[in-house]
Each structure stands twice: as structure tokens, then as C-alpha cells.
From TrEMBL:
<keyword id="KW-0378">Hydrolase</keyword>
<protein>
    <recommendedName>
        <fullName>Beta-galactosidase</fullName>
        <ecNumber>3.2.1.23</ecNumber>
    </recommendedName>
</protein>
<dbReference type="InterPro" id="IPR043159">
    <property type="entry name" value="Lectin_gal-bd_sf"/>
</dbReference>
<dbReference type="InterPro" id="IPR019801">
    <property type="entry name" value="Glyco_hydro_35_CS"/>
</dbReference>
<dbReference type="InterPro" id="IPR000922">
    <property type="entry name" value="Lectin_gal-bd_dom"/>
</dbReference>
<dbReference type="InterPro" id="IPR048913">
    <property type="entry name" value="BetaGal_gal-bd"/>
</dbReference>
<dbReference type="Pfam" id="PF01301">
    <property type="entry name" value="Glyco_hydro_35"/>
</dbReference>
<keyword id="KW-0326">Glycosidase</keyword>
<keyword id="KW-0732">Signal</keyword>
<dbReference type="InterPro" id="IPR031330">
    <property type="entry name" value="Gly_Hdrlase_35_cat"/>
</dbReference>
<dbReference type="InterPro" id="IPR041392">
    <property type="entry name" value="GHD"/>
</dbReference>
<dbReference type="Pfam" id="PF02140">
    <property type="entry name" value="SUEL_Lectin"/>
</dbReference>
<dbReference type="InterPro" id="IPR001944">
    <property type="entry name" value="Glycoside_Hdrlase_35"/>
</dbReference>
<dbReference type="Pfam" id="PF21467">
    <property type="entry name" value="BetaGal_gal-bd"/>
</dbReference>
<feature type="domain" description="SUEL-type lectin">
    <location>
        <begin position="682"/>
        <end position="768"/>
    </location>
</feature>
<dbReference type="InterPro" id="IPR008979">
    <property type="entry name" value="Galactose-bd-like_sf"/>
</dbReference>
<dbReference type="InterPro" id="IPR017853">
    <property type="entry name" value="GH"/>
</dbReference>
Length: 768
């Protein structure tokens, strides 16, 4: 997908592509590196260069990024004597080793701008300033060491440290956030740079789906440039999918759509993409004045101001209104301009308003319109065979007289089996009619089995990752087998000393016997001899690949429904066409999915997102945060899972599911995603653009020019509609075409009876 994504980014008006470097992806085992396939960093940077863009390389190598363990390989945690992200030689040696490797690799390929390559900036660490205080003096020493180490690598382009207000020169500290117009770098000679403008926010299992309006995002950008900003990066411009086990956590979903301008599938997220493209075009058109101009400001009070950038006799103006509710009318050089609340107008010549951040005039795509692939899938299945060994026999690979942290396994799997046995004398006082087991877990999921029987599961609630599992049990005199399966859903990726957060079952694990007289007897099993086994048999046996030894041992009879720990397999043909493909996982619980051996990531459609969405459209005015605009309440947190076309062949493809909780695969089906309804919206004297992205516009549901009310999907005519028949004008101009452009003027649509000062617009809803 790289060339296509980069091409769309360039067409969207970007000049540079910023990327992190993921240490745990490139060095999965100590000193064993992987730069093949999608991990080919050099090829990625060269692909950027080939399209004439610059690149910003955020090496980190701690990156956060909602990525498993913030990008640290978990073996790092298991190095003797290590303390991560502080002045500790074991850690610093490893960090330096990896950073140097990346820098040398870039140098060798002549990829730094100083060598004629595209990389104009490089980053060391990531937002260390947010957590430095919890590391005391050692934190400060580490931060200075990072700066010196980076400088010593001599890359010929500047190094940046984001959110590091005490970054030593010549490091440049940069800002991350939803707004950075108020940011000032610590060195007055440094440019004001914004490494992460959050275009939306990520999604967590059980959480609502945050989105950020195009108007507010555009406002944050224009405001930043009005107030002297020189570099602004979207985080994310394209977030994509957390395939495999890359999602961080805990509980970050497989989709990392982020409401970014290019959506999870790489399609244009409208109106955001188009509205920003127009902004970028305007900013490019005034590049000279913005970069060389003398700056003067006029403050009109009430958060309204004008900034003029002037070079010789050319000047460009940005009029800003940071008021959250009141529109402003300002007079500049004798002319009146209306600046809506929470917006910036750009006048490249200080006379004509070419762009206003609050006036979107491009098409909107209603999301999640998917087209069904009709054929029903035929399934085969097999049980997860590990159960016999672990649940019945309690056989592990290693043992210890303590409960271990799951990170000790180097995070090679989500799954770790904890097994112990308890011998009870027939007159042990704990043997009562009222017995239970109690487990303290941080897991994030646990399934418990006693004497070969499943007794229950527990999973952390969204946002609360510690739990206590307590369940009535019946234990027998003699040997009792206790097996607990712990499953992680992405290791913590952010926070002070996040690397040390407990993972798995830290305990205690207790059995409790209550007597008739309310006397309680507790046996703490935490120091018992526990045996451990990592992972799933089905993965050891390579069930996900069709050409391996056990590939034939699948059954087609008696397909189980709602059965835990079950593998399912089916074959399917790739949906025709070029549109992105998703698999609808409705009906399933939690598990892992693969197409032709490529992991689609974790799925969990049965996890319903919490309530609390508003039915009102989200007001773009006023400060945004990730709880302000949300959707998808009460729906599966993630129902559709991206299957990149590169994972599929033209012949039969194989989908393999591991179903951990139990579910019904009969509703699973493949779909393509395409725009269904598109809406066009243009303010007076602008052009309204409609496009079905490669399909033809088949019908027009609504068209009106005037004071139209409502939003895409529910537009209503206003009280002063233009006299000509807007519907037939738009039908003639657009139906049967892939895209069309119509001028929103009274010349085209006839006169309106709107009052002076009404902002008139042309609004269209079309079917693709
Ligand atoms: C920042 C961090 C990014 C990402 C972002 C939230 O703090 O630098 O890597 O995690 O938050 O999406």
C-alpha cells in the first residue's frame, strides 16, 4: 500500500512523511534483526523520496504510538540489571546500539538530507519530558545522554526531542497535542515545530470511537501558522491497522483508524482530507510571505486578531477568531470580513478570503458502507489441543515456586498457562461445602479450570486493568489440578515506568473454605510450585499455514458453536475489484485471525462499546479532547477487520480463526468498503465537488442552494431557497459521472430571498 498512500498524501498537499521506527519489530530477538518485507525501512524512505517528499525519522526508539510495549522489545526488560528509560548502562548500551544501527543504515543509503536524501529531521526519545520527573536526577542525566549520543552520530540534519522543554541545544524541542499555537521552543532561535497534531484519537476495546471535526483540525493548523509555526505534522495522517500483536495497550483495538485524513483502509476520509488539502494549497500559495515575511499583528479584542506577513509589497493575512461562540466582523483596510467563531480565514493577498477553516466545501463520505460478498462460507474446525496437557495434566515447560510476570516469556504469545496442583488430606479443614478460588490478575483476560473442568473467565473492564476473579469450586481430597490461562491484549505503551507494570497473574491465588460457623480458612497458593506453558498448540503446529503438517486434520462435521478454545478454517475468493476488503466478524467472541498465514490481529466484536454518545452533531467550536466527539456507543467496539488485498491471491484464500471465548462463525463474511452516500457542501462563490472515488454517481437525493439545515444524511431546505430547481441542475451535472464540480452561485441557482449576512451554501446528497 505504500506508494498509493504516499501518493494520496502528496496529492493531499503534504511535503513530508513522518514515521516512527519500531525497535521490537526490527530486533525481535536480541541482535537478530528484521528489515524484510513491510519492515524494510530503507525501501519505505526511498518510496517517499521517489515521490518527491521529505521524511522525518522518529527513531525513538521508545515510541509510545499505541504500539505493543511502546516499541520496546520485551527481551530488553529481561536483560539482567536493566532499568529502562533512565541512566542505566545496560539500557543505554542497547538503546545506543539500535539507534546507531538505524542511523548507519540511513547513512549508508545516503538518506539524510545532508547526503542528498529525503530525511530532514530525526528524533531521539519520545515525550520524555512528560515523565522525566518520576526518574529524578537519573532522568535528567539520561535525557542529556540521549541528546549527546544522538549528536555524536553526526547525521548532518537537526535532531528533535518532542515534549522536552529542557532539551539541551542544539536539540530542538517540539510540541505534541491537539493545539500547539501557544507553544514556544526553549531556544528562542529554534523554529516552532509541531510533531504530532492529533487528527482524532485511537480506540480501545469497550471504549467509544473518538472523532475530530475537519473544521477544528483545520483551525488548529491555520492558527498555528498564524501564530508563527513553521512545521506541523499530522498524527496520524494514515493510522492503518495494528496487525499481528502490534497493538499496544492494554486494550488498544486492531483498527488504528484514528479518524485520520486517510482512513484505516487508505481511502480518503472526507471532508477532512479535502478540507485540509485546500488549506495546504492555500498555505503553499503564500509560502514566500509565510517564510520570509515580516510579521505584524492587530488585536481586535475578544480573541480576534489579524496577522500580516509581508515581503516587500506583497502581503498575506490570517484573520483568527478563537472565540468559542461569537462570530466576528472585522474591518481591515476599509473592508469588512466575517470570521466565524473558532476559525481562521486566509487572505493570500490580504483582500480576498480564499479559505476559512470553518467552511468545509468538499464531499463527505458516510462511513462503513460495505458491500456484501454473497457466498456463505463453509467452515471446518478443530479443538485447541493444548487443553489436554494443561487443563487435565498440568504439564508445562518450566516451573517455579512463585507466580511469574508474563513478560518473562519475552512476549512471544498472548497466552501463558499457569498450572499448579493442591493435595488435600481428606480431613483438611479447608474442605467444606462452601469453597472458592480467588485470583488477583492484571492479565488482561483469565480463564480458569479446576480438575479438567472450565469454571469461568474474567476480563479487565475497559480502563481498569486489575481484577479479582472469585468463583465457587468443589475440591476433592487428594490431588486437585488448577490451571489458569492468562491472555494479554497489548502491553502498556505509555506512562512513567510503564515497562514495569504487572502483566499476567501477579496473585495472590488463594483457595478459600468457609465453615458453617463462618470461620474462613484460606490457603495461599502463590508460592506453590507452578508450571508454565506459553502459547497455543495450534500455533506451534502451524495451523495457520495451509501447507504444513497438520493442515489436513480439520473436521467438517458437527461444527461447534459457542465453544471456547476452538479453531475454525474456511476458504474464500477475494472480492472482485480494487476496493478495500474487510471481514465482518459479527457473531464471534474474542480471538485471533489469519488470512493465508498473515495475521489480521486480535478480534473481539462481542465487546460492546460503552454508552454515552450524544445524538447532536459535535460542535467543532471550542477546545477538542478525545472525549468531546464520540460515536459507536452500544455497538461492537470493532466489527470489521481490514484484509489488505496484498494478503490475498486470486485463487482460493484461507481464513483461520482462533476463537478463545466461543462464538458463531456462520455470520462471518467478506465485504468491500466503498462510499455509499456522498455529500457535497459549498459556501457561496465556491465550487462544490462531488466524487464517488472511481464509481459513478447514480442518483441525487437532495440538492438545495440557500440556508440549508442539517447534516449529511438528513439535510433540510432552509427558508430562503434559490428559485431555480437545484435538484435537476445537479442531476444534469453529476449523474453518470465519477465526479462533478458545480459553482455555488446565484448565477447558477437563481436568486434567494435570504437576509443580508446569511451564509448561503449549496448542499447535495448523492448516491454512488
Ligand atoms: C503521544 C505519543 C504518540 C501517541 C499519541 C497518542 O503522546 O507521542 O506516540 O501515543 O500520544 O496517540
Amino acid at each position: 500500500m505504500w506508494p498509493d498512500l504516499i501518493k494520496k498524501a502528496k496529492e493531499g498537499g503534504l511535503d513530508a512523511i513522518e514515521t516512527y521506527v519500531f525497535w521490537n519489530a526490527h530486533e525481535p530477538l536480541r541482535r537478530q534483526y528484521d528489515f524484510t518485507g513491510n519492515l524494510d525501512l530503507v525501501r519505505f524512505i526511498k518510496t517517499i523520496q521517489d515521490q518527491g517528499l521529505y521524511s522525518v525519522l522518529r527513531i525513538g526508539p521508545y515510541v509510545c504510538a499505541e504500539w505493543n510495549y511502546g516499541g520496546f522489545p520485551v527481551w530488553l526488560h529481561n536483560q539482567p540489571g536493566i532499568e529502562i528509560r533512565t541512566a542505566n548502562t545496560v539500557y543505554m548500551n542497547e538503546m545506543q546500539n539500535f539507534t546507531t544501527l538505524i542511523v548507519d543504515m540511513m547513512k549508508q543509503e545516503k538518506l539524510f538530507a545532508s547526503q542528498g536524501g529525503p530525511i530532514i529531521l530525526a528524533q531521539i526519545e519520545n515525550e520524555y519530558g512528560n515523565v522525566i520527573s518520576s526518574y529524578g536526577d537519573a532522568g535528567k542525566a539520561y535525557m542529556n545522554w540521549c541528546a549527546n549520543m544522538a549528536q555524536s552520530l553526526d547525521i548532518g540534519v537537526p535532531w528533535i526531542m518532542c515534549q522536552q522543554s529542557d532539551a539541551p541545544e542544539p536539540m530542538i524541542n517540539t510540541c505534541n497535542g491537539w493545539y500547539c499555537d501557544q507553544f514556544t521552543p526553549n531556544n528562542p532561535n529554534s523554529p516552532k515545530m509541531w510533531t504530532e497534531n492529533w487528527t482524532g484519537w485511537f480506540k480501545s476495546w469497550g471504549g467509544k470511537d473518538p472523532f475530530r471535526t475537519a473544521e477544528d483540525l483545520a483551525f488548529s493548523v491555520a492558527r498555528f501558522f498564524q501564530l508563527g509555526g513553521s512545521f506541523q505534522n499530522y498524527y496520524m495522517y494514515h493510522g492503518g491497522t495494528n496487525f499481528g500483536r502490534t497493538a499496544g495497550g492494554p486494550y488498544i483495538t486492531t483498527s488504528y483508524d484514528y479518524d485520520a485524513p486517510l482512513n484505516e483502509y487508505g481511502s480518503l476520509n472526507q471532508p477532512k482530507y479535502g478540507h485540509l488539502k485546500q488549506l495546504h494549497d492555500v498555505l503553499h500559495s503564500i509560502e514566500k510571505t509565510l517564510t520570509y515575511g515580516n510579521i505584524s499583528n492587530t488585536d481586535f479584542g475578544n480573541s480576534v486578531s489579524a496577522t500580516i506577513y509581508a515581503v516587500n509589497d506583497t502581503s498575506s493575512c490570517l484573520f483568527g477568531n478563537a472565540n468559542t461562540t461569537t462570530d466576528a466582523t472585522i474591518t481591515y483596510q476599509g473592508v469588512e470580513y466575517n470570521v466565524p467563531a473558532w476559525s481562521v480565514s486566509i487572505l493570500p493577498d490580504c483582500k480576498n478570503e480564499v479559505y476559512n477553516t470553518a467552511k468545509t466545501s468538499v464531499m463527505v463520505k458516510k462511513s462503513n458502507e460495505a458491500e456484501d460478498e454473497p457466498s456463505a462460507l463453509k467452515w471446518t474446525w478443530r479443538p485447541e489441543n493444548i487443553i489436554d496437557e494443561t487443563v487435565v495434566l498440568g504439564k508445562g515447560q518450566v516451573s517455579a515456586s512463585q507466580l511469574i510476570d508474563q513478560k518473562i516469556t519475552n512476549d512471544v504469545s498472548d497466552y501463558l498457562w499457569y498450572m499448579t496442583s493442591v493435595n488435600l488430606d481428606k480431613d483438611d479443614p479447608i474442605l467444606t461445602d462452601d469453597m472458592s478460588i480467588r485470583v488477583n490478575g492484571t492479565g488482561h483476560i483469565m480463564h480458569a479450570y479446576i480438575n479438567g473442568e472450565y469454571i469461568g473467565s474474567q476480563w479487565a473492564e475497559y480502563g481498569i486493568f486489575n481484577y479479582v476473579f472469585e468463583k465457587k469450586v468443589k475440591l476433592n481430597p487428594g490431588k486437585n489440578q488448577i490451571t489458569l490461562l492468562s491472555a494479554t491484549i497489548g502491553l502498556q505503551n505509555y506512562g512513567p515506568r510503564f515497562d514495569l507494570i504487572d502483566t499476567g497473574l501477579p496473585g495472590p491465588v488463594e483457595i478459600i473454605g468457609k465453615k458453617d460457623d463462618d470461620e474462613i480458612i484460606i490457603k495461599d497458593l502463590s508460592q506453590h510450585k507452578w508450571s508454565y506453558k506459553v502459547g497455543l498448540k495450534g500455533l506451534d503446529n502451524e495451523l495457520i499455514y495451509s501447507d504444513k503438517k497438520f493442515a489436513s486434520e480439520w473436521q467438517s462435521e458437527n461444527l461447534p458453536i459457542n465453544k471456547m478454545m476452538t479453531w475454525y478454517k474456511t476458504t474464500f475468493k477475494a472480492p472482485l475489484g480494487e476496493e478495500p476488503v474487510v471481514v465482518d466478524m459479527q457473531g464471534l467472541g474474542k480471538g485471533l485471525a489469519w488470512v493465508n498465514g498473515n495475521s489480521l490481529g486480535r478480534y473481539w466484536p462481542s465487546y460492546i462499546a460503552e454508552d454515552g454518545c450524544s445524538t447532536e452533531p459535535c460542535d467543532y467550536r471550542g477546545s477538542y479532547d478525545n472525549s468531546k466527539c464520540v460515536k459507536n456507543c452500544g455497538q461492537p467496539t470493532q466489527r470489521w477487520y481490514h484484509v489488505p488485498r496484498s494478503f490475498m491471491t486470486e485463487d482460493d484464500n484461507e481464513l483461520v480463526l482462533f476463537q478463545e471465548f466461543g462464538g458463531n462463525p456462520s455470520l462471518v463474511n467478506f465485504q468491500t468498503v466503498r462510499p455509499g452516500t456522498v455529500c457535497g457542501n459549498a459556501y457561496e462563490n465556491k465550487n462544490m465537488e462531488l466524487s464517488c472515488e472511481g464509481r459513478t454517481i447514480s442518483a441525487i437525493n437532495f440538492a438545495s442552494f440557500g440556508d440549508v439545515q442539517g447534516i449529511c444524511g438528513s439535510f433540510k431546505k432552509g427558508s430562503c431557497e434559490a428559485t431555480n430547481d437545484a435538484l435537476s441542475i445537479i442531476q444534469n451535472a453529476c449523474v453518470g459521472k465519477e465526479s462533478c464540480s458545480v459553482a455555488a452561485t446565484e448565477g447558477v441557482f437563481g436568486s434567494t430571498k435570504c437576509e443580508e449576512g446569511t451564509s448561503k451554501r449549496l448542499v447535495v446528497e448523492a448516491v454512488c
